[in-house]
Amino acid sequence: MTDFTDEELALDPNFADRFEQGFRPACQLYLISPPAIGADFADSLAAAFDGGGVAAFQLRLKGLDEDAVARAAEPLQKLCAERDVAFIVNDSMALAKRLGADGVHLGQGDGDPKEARRLLGPSVQIGVTCHDSRHLAMEAGEAGADYVAFGAFYPTTTKETHYRPDPSILGWWTALFELPCVAIGGITADNAAPLVKAGADFLAVSGAVWSHPEGPRAGVAAFEAVLARK
Ligand SMILES: Cc1ncc(COP(=O)(O)OP(=O)(O)O)c(N)n1
Ligand SMILES: Cc1nc(C(=O)O)sc1CCOP(=O)(O)O
Ligand SMILES: [Mg+2]
């Protein structure tokens, strides 16, 4: 543990904690859409945004062709722009380009982050799935990713998963690299604290918000307290 001067501690009682964490900003919520959505999903998304701070929204619709995802995206991308939430497209750099999205999330089989950078330019956010692998994360960073995603930290019914990282991978990452890291997989307001404490910059969450018994607004609001604990 580092020693701090009285002045440093008087200016900011959390100085020691923040110093140990490398002054990383507070952990933020990264909302993932349900795998399938209805015609009124924009209302649910607006309700979720009303619940509290959401930094990014990922449109993750599985099993639809690109034109169908593009049609679904239109009102959602508009809403994200109005609410100052980054609009991220899952899987397809071509669709991200077509929509002028704020970012794209690429899995290990979804294409090369370097190609995405060439296609999308310097200001579009590129995220890469790294499962439980330090090696994949360092590779993604070297390839120019804007964030790396580790998961699945907990069991989830949203997607079949094959990896179960330990939260310590987040602490390892944040101790060595400035690039933000995302934690994903079965995260709820009740089980998120170890991930926030370990250093996650973002919690990527789907089911805990969309299946919250009191609706998506309450689903987002439930994360407020745990996010503040970093
Ligand atoms: C933030 C975030 N992290 C991981 C994933 C998973 O991506 P991928 O491995 O490509 O799996 P699918 O989501 O495409 O089923 C993600 N989408 N977002
Ligand atoms: C899309 C996704 N990717 C994962 C990974 O481990 O890479 S886990 C996952 C599902 C996230 O949804 P929920 O919050 O409902 O578990
Ligand atoms: Mg994918």
From TrEMBL:
<feature type="binding site">
    <location>
        <position position="110"/>
    </location>
    <ligand>
        <name>Mg(2+)</name>
    </ligand>
</feature>
<dbReference type="GO" id="GO:0009229">
    <property type="term" value="P:thiamine diphosphate biosynthetic process"/>
</dbReference>
<feature type="binding site">
    <location>
        <position position="90"/>
    </location>
    <ligand>
        <name>4-amino-2-methyl-5-(diphosphooxymethyl)pyrimidine</name>
    </ligand>
</feature>
<comment type="function">
    <text>Condenses 4-methyl-5-(beta-hydroxyethyl)thiazole monophosphate (THZ-P) and 2-methyl-4-amino-5-hydroxymethyl pyrimidine pyrophosphate (HMP-PP) to form thiamine monophosphate (TMP).</text>
</comment>
<feature type="binding site">
    <location>
        <position position="91"/>
    </location>
    <ligand>
        <name>Mg(2+)</name>
    </ligand>
</feature>
<dbReference type="InterPro" id="IPR034291">
    <property type="entry name" value="TMP_synthase"/>
</dbReference>
<keyword id="KW-0460">Magnesium</keyword>
<dbReference type="GO" id="GO:0009228">
    <property type="term" value="P:thiamine biosynthetic process"/>
</dbReference>
<dbReference type="GO" id="GO:0005737">
    <property type="term" value="C:cytoplasm"/>
</dbReference>
<dbReference type="InterPro" id="IPR036206">
    <property type="entry name" value="ThiamineP_synth_sf"/>
</dbReference>
<comment type="similarity">
    <text>Belongs to the thiamine-phosphate synthase family.</text>
</comment>
<feature type="binding site">
    <location>
        <begin position="156"/>
        <end position="158"/>
    </location>
    <ligand>
        <name>2-[(2R,5Z)-2-carboxy-4-methylthiazol-5(2H)-ylidene]ethyl phosphate</name>
    </ligand>
</feature>
<protein>
    <recommendedName>
        <fullName>Thiamine-phosphate synthase</fullName>
        <ecNumber>2.5.1.3</ecNumber>
    </recommendedName>
</protein>
<feature type="domain" description="Thiamine phosphate synthase/TenI">
    <location>
        <begin position="29"/>
        <end position="209"/>
    </location>
</feature>
<dbReference type="InterPro" id="IPR022998">
    <property type="entry name" value="ThiamineP_synth_TenI"/>
</dbReference>
<keyword id="KW-0808">Transferase</keyword>
<keyword id="KW-0479">Metal-binding</keyword>
<dbReference type="GO" id="GO:0004789">
    <property type="term" value="F:thiamine-phosphate diphosphorylase activity"/>
</dbReference>
<feature type="binding site">
    <location>
        <position position="129"/>
    </location>
    <ligand>
        <name>4-amino-2-methyl-5-(diphosphooxymethyl)pyrimidine</name>
    </ligand>
</feature>
<dbReference type="InterPro" id="IPR013785">
    <property type="entry name" value="Aldolase_TIM"/>
</dbReference>
<feature type="binding site">
    <location>
        <position position="159"/>
    </location>
    <ligand>
        <name>4-amino-2-methyl-5-(diphosphooxymethyl)pyrimidine</name>
    </ligand>
</feature>
<dbReference type="GO" id="GO:0000287">
    <property type="term" value="F:magnesium ion binding"/>
</dbReference>
<feature type="binding site">
    <location>
        <begin position="58"/>
        <end position="62"/>
    </location>
    <ligand>
        <name>4-amino-2-methyl-5-(diphosphooxymethyl)pyrimidine</name>
    </ligand>
</feature>
<dbReference type="Pfam" id="PF02581">
    <property type="entry name" value="TMP-TENI"/>
</dbReference>
<keyword id="KW-0784">Thiamine biosynthesis</keyword>
<feature type="binding site">
    <location>
        <position position="186"/>
    </location>
    <ligand>
        <name>2-[(2R,5Z)-2-carboxy-4-methylthiazol-5(2H)-ylidene]ethyl phosphate</name>
    </ligand>
</feature>
<comment type="pathway">
    <text>Cofactor biosynthesis; thiamine diphosphate biosynthesis; thiamine phosphate from 4-amino-2-methyl-5-diphosphomethylpyrimidine and 4-methyl-5-(2-phosphoethyl)-thiazole: step 1/1.</text>
</comment>
